[in-house]
């Protein structure tokens, strides 16, 4: 029915959840924050690097499930400061073809886990 997807190439969950859950052909990826899975440390101080790390964590989970960013149909981006939207969007955009990019919302929030500046979740379909 559902298959749990976890990889050591993305940060371990920091709560009672998994990195992703595959149901039939649909992959639901938990929000990824800019934690370097090799060190367990937060990437901080540069929103572009933070966004890139979050996207690389998502890429690792997609890879583990046998998918790529081409399979992504929906993305949710949560940011601590909407003034950083253009920099986040610039990095995010390098992972997708603009013509086939997924649906998306971007929401400014009061706080995120570990008080990071960006968290991104995705839904992908084989």
TrEMBL record:
Which GO molecular function, any one, fits this protein according to its record? Answer: deaminase activity
Q: Name one GO cellular component term.
A: cytosol
| Entry-linked InterPro entries | RidA, RutC-like_sf, YjgF/YER057c/UK114
Q: List the Pfam families.
A: Ribonuc_L-PSP
Membrane-spanning segments: none
Among Gene3D superfamilies, the record links this protein to: RutC-like
Q: Which family does it belong to?
A: Belongs to the RutC family.
Q: What is this protein called?
A: 2-iminobutanoate/2-iminopropanoate deaminase
Organism (species): Flagellimonas zhangzhouensis
């Amino acid at each position: 029915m559902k298959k749990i997807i976890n990889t050591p190439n993305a940060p371990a969950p920091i709560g009672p959840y998994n990195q992703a859950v595959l149901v039939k052909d649909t992959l639901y990826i938990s929000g990824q924050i800019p934690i370097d899975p090799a060190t367990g440390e937060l990437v901080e101080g540069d929103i572009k690097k933070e966004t890139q790390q979050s996207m690389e964590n998502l890429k690792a989970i997609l890879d583990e499930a046998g998918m790529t960013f081409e399979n992504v149909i929906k993305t949710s981006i949560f940011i601590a400061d909407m003034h950083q939207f253009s920099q986040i969007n610039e990095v995010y955009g390098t992972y997708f073809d603009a013509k086939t990019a997924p649906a998306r919302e971007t929401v400014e929030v009061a706080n995120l886990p570990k008080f990071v500046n960006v968290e991104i979740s995705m839904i992908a379909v084989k």
